[in-house]
Amino acid sequence: MNSLRIRMKIKTFAAVLGLLLLMGMGWFAYSQLPSLLYYNGYEQQLMKWFPKSEYGKRAAQAFAYDYYKDYNFYQDDHVFIGADGSYGTSSVVGVNQEQADLDEGIGLLEGYLSEHGELERSSGFLHVLAWLYLRVDDWDRAEELFRQELDLSGSDGNAMEAKAWIEILESRTLRLGETPSIQGELKVGGRAEPNAYVVLQAAEDNGWDSNPVMFHPMTITDAQGRYRFYDVEPGEYKLRVGLLSSRLEAYSLSEPQEKTVQVVAGADDAAAFDFNFLPRAVAKAPANKETITGDVLRFEWEPYEGAAFYRINLVTLIRDGDGDVSGSGSRPLPGDYEGTEAVFSLEELRAQQIGQTRSYDSEGNIGYSPDSLLGPAYPGGEFMWSVDAFDERGLKLSSSGGTFLGGDRRMPLFRLWDEGMQEGDRLVVAGKYKEAIQAYEREGNDPHALRVLARITEEGTKKGEADADKALAYLERIQEPTEADLSEMERLREKMASAAAIDGIGSRESAAHDLQLLNAYQKEKHE
Fold first, then answer.
1. What pLDDT is stored for residue 522 in this prediction?
2. Are 387 and 399 in contact (CB under 8 A)?
3. Of 132, 317, 417, 430, which shows the fewest CB atoms inside 10 Å?
4. What are the C-alpha distances in Å from 213 to residues 83, 147, 169?
5. What pLDDT score does 347 carry?
């Protein structure tokens, strides 16, 4: 009987011990479940079941950032344009995203925030949600979220950006009793443009940061399209206005008479600077990827209200071995035109010297833009073009090219028939300059071949191979030189004379230095 009781006690103890072990293992498993869910990508389950845990907060932040990236909210879509014609893009302050996607994202994140208030402790979650509100121009809610984030973040990178955004968003409010340092108005198509960014830079600042929020003073235009900068140090400044590229498709920035603004210490009034985007000029022909044959290139455009004259710009497209556009070069064509048509002789364009656009690789080899050797318009070339309209003061009113929008300029595209394209021309386009020189040499005294030989030889195919003397000799072989040829020959002679004068000065200075050393030596020896 006693042995039976002892056996029963042992079994009971074992059962209790087993139960305790199972409970311990269960507790251990439960305590480790948040980390297991986090590292296996179950973010939404974590946010629902363990919102107060450290992994729950991490999951909320990761979920918000992943959602942001999955919908391409990082895509560049703001263009910042300066009165001087400069431009830059930004990867921070906006995308051309569908309103439904933005509303869905805001609703989703706000829903989690409402259901799990503990997410307010996740600064990254708040940062992403604030960004989404920036996209829909809900400045008040964005500012509120950035302030909450700043309270949590301390001094990390997100906190610095949140602080910068708070300052930008505060600038929307007119300071009663204070005079702005700089103020102005933004109009697009004759209407005030609200919710646009304006960036302030020192006049001598030629750089551009793709995230201007952290590096330049910024503000936002109000409902009347007006902006203001306060407490600006005295000096000369330039401004850029930032708009969604989709807003700029039909407009071009009109050139102001003054490109910078001066802030004067103690001034009673604000320095004024306005931006005015006018409808784009309209280019008519050539267009639609047509191929131009014959020896005449004719451009046509629609008349522009208020224009006193027009100018033509030609853009050469450069393609890589796969046929993709790898670069381009923009050139103004000569002349001002009062009508709505400009006609050029292809032979004369081909003969023009337009200055060399070149680059160097790590070994010193030179690469040329094809148009800088073959002329602004050459057989077999692929081109885009635009027309600019100017007022009586010579200020640009508008351009058919509009604002630079990246790879797609929305400009008319055309090709020139490749009849008359020499073997050397094809080698130039392919970047095979040494082979091109040999091919042109075989053309004898062909004027075009001699011109291209002169252009290549002046700088060479590699650093240190420049030979202006030989370049001049090529041009002097042209039997019937044009005015452009004669002008180019004169430029080369002046270049050579200038180089000789500098060498002469260097030689005289070297000789004087040698004589000075010799006199010192003889004096020391005599003593």
1. 52
2. yes
3. 430
4. 20, 16, 11
5. 87
CA distance 458 to 471: 5
81: number of Cβ within 10 Å: 21
Q: Write down the H helix ranges in 321-446.
A: 346-351, 370-374, 423-429, 433-441
Q: Specify the CATH number for 69-170; select among 1.10.8.60, 1.25.40.10, 2.40.10.350, 3.40.30.120.
A: 1.25.40.10
Q: Please, which contacts does 259-266 make with residues 24 or more away whose CB atoms are closer than 8 Å?
A: 259/82, 259/83, 259/84, 260/83, 260/203, 260/236, 261/182, 261/236, 261/237, 262/235, 262/236, 262/237, 263/181, 263/182, 263/232, 263/233, 263/234, 263/235, 263/236, 263/237, 264/234, 265/234
- For helices 433-441 and 447-459, angle between their N-to-C axes, nearest 10 degrees: 140
Does 5 score more than 60 pLDDT?
no
Residues 450-475: pLDDT tens digits?
999 999 999 999 988 999 999 999 99
What residue spans define the domains of the chain? 69-170, 182-279, 304-421
Which residue do the tokens 């001034």 mark?
267
Rounded CA-CA distance 339/389 in Å is 11
Query: Class assignment of domain 182-279?
Result: mainly beta
